[in-house]
Write a structure and sequence with these properties.
The protein is of the alpha/beta class and 300 residues long. It has one domain: Ribokinase (UDP-N-acetylmuramoyl-L-alanine:D-glutamate ligase, 3-Layer(aba) Sandwich). It has eleven helices and 13 strands. The mean pLDDT is 92.
């Protein structure tokens, strides 16, 4: 962590899951018991929370994270990444004698993917980590989380944020049932279409449903208020696109943008993110996202 990262109060706080992505590229999904030869293999940074934190930082936010990583090579990989991105890591706990999380990812020739995650040291993230970061949370503008961290941790942080008037953003992935108490503390949820089905019937303030290449749909208090069309991009792979959307949305909300404008920014950032390999490589800066949006305006 650089002195610069510590000297600025973060405006976006991320409850950050971290894992190293072990990425194999294969022609197509495998059937049970089948072996396929992979085109390539790579180890890349990943984890929904870490990805979203990096996305928010590249979109101009001052980002701090609350995380728990292993004291191993993959954990040092995380700290190195966060330092390069200017992210405040004062509340990133390094757990001795524990492994960092890993995700085994298969990327198919059409750009789609399948992922299996082993959480590792992140499973031990607890309320004590939130309590240690209470001052940082209360001073922030946005706190974001995902279902890759324990729900009790998100609940504790969101309670703290709500009491301080801080906006809360939850990416409810991977899909699982959310208790009503947690949903009530969410200002914005960013599910994909399958994850959104689990929220049916719940009292949700605002929902931005990501739809891949089709764009996204914005709901407020159960009513569809706007749809945003997707961008025609050359897809390399879709790893991290949803995380980029959530991080970019949080950064835009922290800048004071209204939800619709924030979703427009996030839609552009997510589109650019699919043009490179892995979650991080093509994750855009704010200037790159703005350039894409300006090109659209000029073309009309």
């Amino acid at each position: 962590m650089t002195d610069k990262a510590c000297s600025v109060t973060p405006d976006v706080i991320c409850l950050a899951s971290w894992n190293a992505d072990l990425v194999s590229r294969v022609a197509r999904p495998m059937v049970r018991g089948e072996t396929l030869m992979a085109h390539s293999f790579d180890i890349q940074p990943g984890g929904k929370g870490s990805n979203a934190a990096v996305a928010a930082a590249r979109q101009g936010a001052q980002v701090g994270l609350i995380a728990r990583i292993g004291d191993d090579d993959f954990g040092r990989m995380a700290l190195s990444l966060w330092q390069r991105e200017g992210i405040d890591t004062r509340h990133a706990e390094v757990a001795a004698n524990e492994r960092s999380g890993v995700a085994q990812i298969l990327v198919y020739d059409d750009g789609d993917n399948s992922i299996a995650v082993a959480v590792g040291a992140g499973a031990g993230l607890g309320k004590v980590n939130v309590d240690k970061a209470c001052e940082m949370i209360r001073a922030a503008k946005v706190v974001m989380s995902s279902n890759e961290v324990p729900q009790a941790v998100t609940l504790a942080a969101f309670k703290m944020a709500r009491a301080a008037g801080v906006t809360t953003v939850l990416n409810p992935a991977p899909a699982m049932d959310l208790p009503d108490e947690l949903v009530a503390l969410c200002d914005v949820l960013t599910p994909n279409e399958s994850e959104a089905k689990l929220l049916f019937g719940k009292s949700v303030r605002a929902l931005v449903v990501t739809q891949g290449a089709a764009g996204c749909a914005i709901y407020q208090n159960g009513t569809l208020v706007q749809t945003l069309t997707g961008w025609a991009m050359q897809v390399v792979d879709t790893i991290g696109a949803g995380d980029t959307f959530t991080g970019a949305l949080a950064a835009a909300l922290a800048r004071g943008e209204l939800l619709l404008d924030a979703a427009i920014s996030a839609n552009a950032a997510a589109a650019l993110s699919v043009t490179g390999r892995g979650a991080i490589a093509a994750m855009p800066t704010l200037a790159q996202s703005q350039a894409l949006m300006q090109n659209l305006t000029k073309s009309k």
